[in-house]
Amino acid sequence: MKKAMLPLAAVLLGGTAAMATEGTVHVYNWSDYIDESLLAKFEEETGLELVYDVFDSNELLETKLLAGGSGYDVVVPTGTFLERQIQAGVFRELDFGQLPNSENLWDVVKERTEKYDPGNAYSVNYMWGTTGLGVNMAKVQEVLGEDAPIDSLDLVFKPEKMEKLASCGVHFLDAPTEIIPAALRYLGEDPDSHDPDVIGKTEDLLMSVRPYVTKFHSSEYINALANGEICVAFGWSGDILQARDRAAEADNGVEITYNAPKEGALMWFDQMAIPADAPNPEGALAFLNFIMDPQNMAAASNYVYYANGNKASQEFLNEDVIGDPAIYPSEETLENLYTVTAYEPKVQRVVTRLWTKVKSGT
Amino acid sequence: MNPRRLVLIAAPYAWLLALFMVPFLIVLKISLSDTAVAIPPYAPTFDLSAGWAGIREFFGGLDFENFIWLTEDDLYWKSYLSSMKIAAVATFLTLLAGYPVAYAMSRAKPEWRPTLMMLIILPFWSSALIRVYAWIGILQSEGYLNQLLLWSGVIDTPLSILNTQVAVYIGIVYTYLPFMILPIYASLEKMDESLLEAAEDLGCTRITAFWRVTFPLSKPGIIAGCFLVFIPSLGEFVIPSILGGSQTLMIGKVLWEEFFSNRDWPVASAVAVVLLLILVIPIVLFQRNEERNA
Amino acid sequence: MESKPAPAPFAPWEDAAAHPLIRFEGVTKRFGDFTAVSDLNLKIYPREFFALLGPSGCGKTTLMRMLAGFETPTEGTIWLDGQNIAPVPPNKRPVNMMFQSYALFPHLSVWDNIAFGLRRAGKDKETVRARVEEMLRLTRLDQFARRKPHQISGGQRQRVALARSLALGPKLLLLDEPLGALDKKLRQDTQFELMDIQEKTGTTFVIVTHDQEEAMTVASRVAVMDAGRLCQVDTPQHIYETPNSRYVADFIGEVSIIEGRVAALGEEAEIAYAEGARPIVTRTGGAALEPGQSVFYAIRPEKIWVGAAPHPDRINSVEGTIVDIGYLGDVSTYHVRLDTGQMVKALMTNAERYAASRFTWNDRVWLSWSRHAGVVLAS
Lengths: 362, 294, 379
What we know:
The complex is a heterotrimer of chains A (362), B (294) and C (379).
Chain A: H1 7-13, E1 24-30, H2 37-46, E2 49-55, H3 58-67, E3 74-75, H4 79-87, H5 107-113, E4 123-136, H6 137-144, H7 154-157, H8 159-165, E5 170-172, H9 176-186, H10 196-200, H11 202-209, E6 215-216, H12 221-226, E7 232-236, H13 237-250, E8 256-259, E9 266-273, H14 281-291, H15 294-304, E10 307-308, H16 319-322, H17 331-336, H18 345-360
Chain B: H1 3-31, E1 34-35, E2 42-43, H2 51-60, H3 65-72, H4 74-107, H5 113-121, H6 128-139, H7 144-152, H8 165-189, H9 193-201, H10 206-217, H11 219-234, H12 238-243, H13 251-261, H14 265-293
Antiparallel strand pairs in B: 1-2
Chain C: E1 22-31, E2 34-44, E3 49-53, H1 60-68, E4 75-80, E5 83-84, E6 95-98, H2 110-120, H3 125-138, H4 154-166, E7 172-176, H5 184-201, E8 204-209, H6 212-218, E9 221-226, E10 229-234, H7 236-241, H8 246-251, E11 256-265, E12 268-272, E13 280-283, E14 294-299, E15 305-307, E16 316-327, E17 331-338, E18 343-349, E19 364-369, E20 374-377
Parallel strand pairs in C: 3-8, 3-9, 6-7, 7-8
Antiparallel strand pairs in C: 1-2, 1-4, 4-5, 9-10, 11-12, 11-14, 12-13, 14-20, 15-19, 16-17, 16-19, 17-18
């Protein structure tokens, strides 16, 4: 679930799926989500031609897949989206006989992705991460004091805290499927609840903090956090780490930390899968197998600062990746992470409507 | 009727049929369907292989449920109203900004006019999306506008314009300004200069001559320009998404959410059909205005 | 025969005591380097129908626009009714203009066009209605009052423009090529209508035209202009019969001009124009001439008699060859090359149906004219 920059950009400028030709593999992945030298390496090793397109929103990918005939051989939806796409019959089952590198996959991740893809029959994990709190330490402590709850959802769900934070700026992801489970968790409910009445309980909580949210946006917080424009972002781990690095590079005195909330954090998975109507499924399998090579997978993670679902790759990871608890959480924290599943259409409608109300007040 | 004439007359109708009626009927059909977890994500789909029974089943599966749904949640009519308000205000602002430009162009020396016209059209050579994106750089709190205002001492703290309604208006006015200027310019340009002299000769000051003669004579251009701005503004999605804040309620965004977030193609189609019906009214008025001035 | 005495001729310009309505005093108008009007002096009297005649670019339109207030003189003063009008804007002048293009407001009906100025003047509804209806009657437009300008004919539009400019009852009405857009037949009818209306309303009319026939027909006095100057200001008859320069003679009507010099000077003058030819005998008309001076002898074609032999009663007779004939129905114009080389035009009325056939191309003919027929011009 990489940053959803501006989905409409993809709608308007989005790549058109090319027609497949013999020996060509069409891959559709998130933007800025791979070490690009891997692409040349793949072509070299397999002799296949690789056409690599990028998207920046799950919704866009899903619409292409549901319309049918996308022309792609490999796509990378997020778990919750994958789940309902499997139900719609979008993907073909993987032939693990042709995926010898699948033995490198990490059980810890496989256990969890099974929730979206029973038996892991249709997909393999590419990257995963958590949703949590990015904090500008100095500013938050200035407003809330030394004991500011920077590792707790209290920070963003307690109106009295938010009221103070509003002065230095707070961004929330513009993604109800991320924020509402967190609110449910905070209220002591099941974050994966699909009961509209239970989901409805979050309305009062969200409305109470809404006036203090500077903005609901799914990508702007990276820069805003890095240049000190805001002091708190409720966002994706990799993006906040990216903000941390940008601030460090700029040497502007801004110090960013990421924390998965101690109440529990949402864990998400971007899964590689092959559309049922893929023009070149053999080539797609070759690409999947290539990516699951421990060294290749490690190269990708070292480049994008996201954890992957490949156990064997871990020995090749850089220390600032494998050693960072914000990327690879401790065993203990890992136990505290939760996952959510896709909403049924009727429930999804309730969630979207609730979110519109939270954002616009209507 | 000779065959050539027939072809000539048939061509625009074929065009209309292929590019408007067929897509509209497809959208209308989807709006009468139900969502489904399938490809495509709605049912029923047209299946000729099942013969008559299939066709009967197909039509039996259509209903107005989605349109009824639109009346049940106040989000929709509030969005339509809000869109209309934003479009109307933006159209008025565009008129205020565009009229003086068109007027100045029509009063410029004839040898300058093609150049001025070129300058108005020039922005169209770049993508509208990129031009709207560029406004982020201008309007954001550390953007050029704020830098300029801070530097000149007009303000002490940066204005937050980006992600507000104001930014949406700026975006719409900027994007659609040429659509306002060109028709007004066309109506002013063909105006006989001696009409103003005649008005002055008959007792008007320069200002009353403008209101009594120039303005009424440019009315067809004003009306055309207003329609050309209002109609696309009403369904505008790009500008509020890029420049507007989360509180900017527009039907284009609602439609996007129905389509992408809710994956509810039928309701999204119903929203689109209603939007089209709302637009048909000003389009018909526009058409009648054009005919009257033809 | 005459049962009543002829009215005193209207000629205020001959009356030293008459007060002019308009007085141009040393008026010059320059546009950048171009001098449109140069040091012009002119008086126009109340109730006159005054024509400014000249080719395009002669400054006649500029003169009119200065009267209307759309241009201001670079130098000099224009007096209107004893008031310097330079500082008065067009909308405050008791002057109205009928535009060449008519400049009817296309968005207003005929009625509203005529009422336009009255409403701006703040007249009450009843006054406006009465005045508009009066104007409609005057210009015979009653049944077109509700039409828009594009729904009526060119002649009707011309009358609307006239009615509109007269509605305010101006002291001075300016007409810029008022009949230029009409076809010839309609133009002739309209000329008389214009004169009629001018007479009825008693308004002073200043008309700008390049059509000499039109100027001659309608005007009490004509000013012939060239290159920003007045060449001659006089009644149409004087302009025609006694032009004061080659330019005026040439501009107004047809004329043949023979270059020569004064051979003998008495009560009559003799103009020698060619070696061995008999000099032209003519009255001098009071022009100051000196013997030996180079002059131009101008004679109008209708003053020349064409015959197979010299006319016994005419003092001047020369022989020549017909090189061209213009048959116009009522008259025929003969272009005759004299044996001395000059070209002379002569006009003959086709009084008999076959008279025109009497002379044809290359015929030898005699041209005869009297001592009063032509004028001697020094320039």
